[in-house]
């Protein structure tokens, strides 16, 4: 059984299955994407909630030094992007890391990563939809002076929590802060004005549901329409961000950049999940391989271009934010760009509000494109029902999978809190990056071909051990402390020690086998970012993976197209 669990697909076999799928359903995906479209799609996915929301919390913990974290994260993603580019050039099929893992690691690992990608795309989009709702409501209130009922704008758990906190605080009679008093009274009023059904106060996030429904419709009717929508939104939001950077530069006080690392490097690392969440979308480019005119040439370029452009924008925004306002003031600030201009230039705040809505809309669109194409690939392999690979004869999109993705995102966005899902999404994405980076090492060598990307080989035999030795030196006190207090350490430090063991093993293997430097560094950097994410999210991640394995053994293992071949061996 263990052999059948890791049965692999050849690259030729994957290309053959794609053609058979087109013949069976009478329609293939429409090839309309060029390098510019793919680059814009990458920017659309990366520049969104991160730059308008989560960067605030990261700045509070890391201070001006948060710009370093963007560089570290970009380098990490850069290693992975080069590995993605190698796979995209060799395996120009929709499916992203799922398809790549099927070629290199086998079926069980491929299913596992396909299941983890649901966290990145579908579950991650719930958070984006909820963020969009907040930006949209802010836009209605401050620009159009339209006030929607509060019970249409929030999930029931958040509303109940705010009400009970407010009621308890006001009962003491000791609240004197006007802003805090206003906040508590608002929570009480919202609760009392909500309709009651079957004895329960009714709350749901209607704008989040509506935007997901609209985006799903655009994704359903065609990649050409989706491409054009994404391109227009990207041009607009990049123009706004550049404008904000230039405008903010006039308000920068360089004294706010001192100290640069107020909470040392540990404070910077607390923003890992928030900052990395901003980068999770660049691999969405790989899911559109079958709609690309020349995937072997254009996809690698687009991945690198989008990563470089987004990193430059993030670093400049981070420096402007922490230069205009002291880092300590970003605690619990969910709209940092609007926050820094609220009193200095209110008219800029209004432009930012519009841009935030556009930016998060583009993220929703790209992610709603990505998930159905991964499911389509899994269905072709027999791991999901055939319905998921159905391509619409008119629109040339994976129609059924697109509808299911829309339902999976739209319905939970009505009632769920975003909460820990950000961290959970980052773990799922980093897990994919680790497998893609490691998978490149298992690809068979080929001769370089004109027009196709090939990952440059740099012998890591000497460099990787040196990097590991430097890491041990700089983190020696953490290693000693974690090792000497192993039985009393928290789970975070146990994860750190586990990372050290894996890093040591990879260093030794690299010395023995002369592995290529870039994939090894991609694995190590992504693993390190993973262990810095709070352990509470790890427990949820393991639970999600366990559910995925259950689905695989109940359906995928029995229906895999490779099962007959495995049975004949």
Automatic annotation (TrEMBL):
GO molecular function list: amino acid transmembrane transporter activity
Cited InterPro entries: AA/rel_permease1, CAT_C
Topology of the protein relative to the lipid bilayer: Multi-pass membrane protein
Chief place of localization: membrane
Transmembrane region(s): 38-60, 66-87, 108-132, 202-222, 234-252, 302-324, 351-370, 395-415, 427-446, 458-479, 491-509, 537-555
Domain Cationic amino acid transporter C-terminal: residue ranges: 517-560
Keywords, alphabetical: Membrane, Transmembrane, Transmembrane helix, Transport
Taxonomy, superkingdom: Bacteria
Location within or outside the cell: Membrane
Pfam families: AA_permease_2, AA_permease_C
Gene Ontology cellular-component annotations: membrane
Name of the protein this chain belongs to: Amino acid permease
Provenance organism: Filimonas effusa
């Amino acid at each position: 059984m263990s052999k059948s669990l890791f049965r692999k697909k050849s690259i030729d076999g994957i290309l053959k299955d794609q053609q058979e799928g087109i013949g069976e359903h009478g329609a293939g995906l429409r090839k309309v994407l060029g390098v510019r479209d793919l680059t814009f799609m990458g920017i659309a996915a990366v520049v969104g909630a991160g730059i308008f929301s989560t960067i605030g919390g990261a700045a509070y913990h890391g201070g001006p030094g948060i710009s370093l974290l963007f560089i570290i994260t970009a380098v990490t993603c850069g290693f992975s992007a080069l590995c993605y580019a190698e796979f995209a050039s060799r395996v120009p099929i929709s499916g992203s890391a799922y398809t790549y893992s099927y070629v290199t690691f086998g079926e069980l690992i491929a299913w596992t990563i396909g299941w983890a990608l649901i966290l990145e795309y579908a579950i991650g989009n719930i958070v984006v939809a909820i963020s969009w709702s907040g930006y949209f409501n802010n836009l209605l209130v401050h620009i159009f002076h339209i006030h929607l009922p509060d019970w249409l704008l929030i999930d029931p758990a958040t509303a109940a929590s705010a009400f009970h906190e407010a009621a308890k605080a006001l009962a003491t009679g000791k609240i004197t802060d006007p802003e805090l008093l206003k906040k508590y009274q608002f929570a009480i009023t919202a609760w009392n004005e909500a309709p009651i059904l079957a004895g329960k106060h009714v709350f749901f996030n209607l704008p989040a549901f509506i935007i997901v429904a609209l985006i799903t419709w655009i994704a359903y009717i065609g990649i050409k329409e989706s491409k054009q929508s994404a391109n227009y939104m990207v041009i607009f939001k990049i123009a706004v961000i550049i404008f904000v950077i230039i405008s903010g530069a006039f308000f920068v006080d360089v004294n706010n950049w001192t100290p640069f690392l107020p909470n040392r490097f540990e404070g910077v690392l607390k923003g890992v999940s928030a900052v990395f969440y901003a980068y999770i979308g660049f691999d969405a480019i790989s899911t559109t391989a079958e709609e690309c005119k020349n995937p072997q040439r254009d996809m690698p370029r687009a991945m690198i271009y989008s990563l470089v452009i987004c990193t430059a924008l993030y670093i400049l925004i981070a420096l402007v934010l922490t230069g205009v306002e002291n880092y300590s003031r970003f605690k619990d600030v969910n709209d940092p760009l609007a926050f820094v201009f609220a009193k200095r230039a209110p008219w800029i705040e209004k432009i930012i509000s519009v841009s935030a809505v556009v930016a998060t809309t583009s993220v929703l669109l790209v992610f709603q494109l990505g998930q159905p194409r991964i499911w389509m690939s899994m269905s072709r392999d027999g791991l999901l029902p055939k319905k998921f690979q159905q391509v619409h004869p008119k629109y040339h999109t994976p129609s059924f999978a697109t509808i299911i993705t829309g339902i999976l995102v739209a319905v939970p966005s009505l009632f769920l809190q975003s909460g820990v899902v950000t961290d959970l999404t980052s773990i799922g994405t980093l897990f994919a990056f680790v497998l893609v980076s490691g998978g490149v090492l298992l690809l068979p060598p080929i001769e370089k071909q004109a027009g196709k990307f090939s990952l440059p080989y740099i012998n890591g035999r000497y460099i990787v051990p040196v990097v590991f030795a430097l890491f041990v030196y700089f983190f020696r006190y953490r290693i000693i402390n974690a090792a000497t207090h192993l039985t009393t350490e928290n789970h975070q430090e146990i994860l750190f020690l586990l990372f050290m063991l894996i890093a040591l093993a990879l260093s030794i293997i690299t010395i023995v086998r002369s592995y290529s430097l870039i994939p090894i560094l991609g694995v190590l950097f992504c693993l390190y970012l993973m262990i810095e994410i709070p352990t509470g999210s790890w427990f949820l991640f393991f639970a999600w993976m366990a559910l995925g394995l259950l689905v695989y053994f109940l359906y995928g293992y029995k229906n895999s197209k490779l099962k007959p071949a495995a049975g004949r061996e």
